[in-house]
Amino acid sequence: MVLQGALSHHVLMNSLTPTQRDRGLRRLRRLTFGATAGGLIAVVGVGYAAAASYAGKSSSSGTSQATATTTDTTTSSSASSSTTSSDGLQSAPQAPTTGSSGSGTVTSGGS
Amino acid sequence: MALAVKSWKALGTSVLVLSTRDDRLEATTTAVRQVLEDVDAAYSRFREDSELTRVNANAGRSIQISPLLATAIDAALRAARLTDGAVDPTIGHAIRVAGYDDDFSRITGPHPALPHERGREIDPGERGREIPLRAWHVPGWQAIRLDRRSRTIWLPQGVELDLGSTGKALAADLAATAAMAAAGDGGVLVSLGGDIGTAGASPAGGWRILVAEDSRVKPSGDGDVICVPAGGVATSSTTVRRWSRGGVILHHIIDPQTGLPTTGPFRTVTVVAGTCLDANIASTAAIVRGEAAIDWLTSCRLPARLVENDGTIHYIGPWPDPSSVAA
Asked: pLDDT tens digit string along B102-143?
């Protein structure tokens, strides 16, 4: 049965002129492209609708909250670039050097 | 380069602003004052009208908060996460029970008054008795629910936030950033009780910092001086803000595991980091963690100076060699 179907298809293909075959292939390409684009649009649309309708939980207890607590607090005061870890304490852009007290020295100590 | 300097008191501590632009000092100090006023209104633990007081008084209910308080709480939660809870904002009730329940200037003295005694005359004999030491279980930062998008917070009943540790350091960073924006160019340093934030270009060689155990030590005093081109510096110490309960000398750095002031081997820790906030997180966590702090700070690759209770000093990471004094 399968063999018969394949055979009839082969015969039909052979009955087409090159022009007809090219036209068919172009149509097939258009259909493939359209289906792919439509699928992508549908995925994005459904995703957007899902995100808009459910904003997610504000937080939860335990380890999951630890993950939710992000490191994106905007507290960096340095104009220079710093060594940043996405999930760790931020290093100074340059290591401190030894100095001597003089004008403009500031004390860092407990308070 | 001559630096323009301005100092005053705010947030119960000393404020120092340094600017590389003398002609912008007024603008920078105005910006810093504004940030500190905002910070005080948002998360002072001792103001009855602060937002934080309102949040603490409404545990069990979802409360909408300002962007500043949300940032401060977010920073405190990040600190707790990065230190495995060594720096925990839910110590609020524990530190109050331990005795730090008012502006520190009203707690200190030979015979600190009990909360109910303040504002009335106390018989001198009555005043002389010892106040018992009490501890309170720290509920843990995981109990806090902060929705950053809607800026709402929910605390379980009995949970009280204290942003004292990270809050001051965050304020130094925010103030430095605001001051720099007001100045336009040059560089700014803001010190809040020894927690130092910087912004913009430093003076040649970097900002000079005297590392001490007490921020009240004069900058010309003895000690290690380091030059920091950018970032922040923070020092946590058990040698300051001390009081007495039950015959025990206490300090303000609470170990969340015990609900009492820490009793580890280090009395003072100074850290240099990308921000004052991160330096403070590391220095506070190091005091709480005790011996384990050395390996932890090493893994964080943050330069640090640790002073043991007997005065022995340890240097961690790329902390400059104190024996090689530069010009």
From this structure: 665 655 554 444 444 444 444 444 444 556 666 667 778 999
- At residue B175, what is the residue type? A
- Could you tell me which residues come within 8 angstroms of residue B83 by beta carbon, excluding any fewer than 6 positions away? B281, B284, B285, B288, B289
Cα dihedral sign, B135-B49-B63-B81: negative
Q: What angle do CA A62, A66, A68 make, to 5 degrees?
A: 115
Continuous H helices in chain B: 25-43, 51-57, 67-82, 92-97, 124-127, 164-183, 276-289, 293-300
Check if the interface score ipTM surpasses 0.85. no
What 3-state DSSP class applies to B289?
helix
Rama region for B38: left / alpha / beta (φ>0; ψ in -120 to 50; rest): alpha
Please state, in angstroms and rounded to a whole number, the distance separating the CA atoms of residues B5 and B189.
10
Q: Rounded CA gap, B211 and B271, in Å?
A: 10
CA angle B61, B164, B207 (to 5 degrees): 140
B213: chain A residues, CB-CB within 8 Å: 109-110
Q: Cα–Cα distance between B248 and B291 in angstroms, integer? A: 23
The one-letter amino acid code at A51 reads A
Q: Can you name the residues that pair with B314 across neighbouring β-strands? A: B306
> At a CB cut-off of 8 Å and minimum separation 6, what does B245 contact?
B98, B99, B130, B131, B132, B133, B134
The alpha-carbon gap from A46 to the nearest alpha carbon of chain B, in Å, equals 22
Q: Tell whether pTM > 0.80.
A: no
Strand partners, A97: B227
**Could you tell me the two tokens for A25?**
């292939």
Lowest mean pLDDT segment, chosen from A48-52, B238-242, B257-261, B280-284: A48-52
What single-letter DSSP state applies at residue B111? S
Q: How far is CA B2 from the centre of its chain?
A: 29
Check A80 against B230: CB less than 8 A apart: yes
Length of chain B: 327
Say yes or no for a CB contact (<8 Å) between A104 and B203. Answer: yes
Whether B115 and B150 have beta carbons less than 8 Å apart is answered as no
Q: Is A110 exposed, middle or buried (0-12, 13-18, 19+ CB in 10 A)?
A: buried
**Chain A neighbors of B232, CB-CB under 8 A:** 77-78, 92
Distance, in Å, from the CA atom of B46 to the CA atom of B58, rounded to the nearest integer, reads 16
Q: A40 to each of A46, A47, A48, how far by Cα in Å?
A: 10, 11, 12
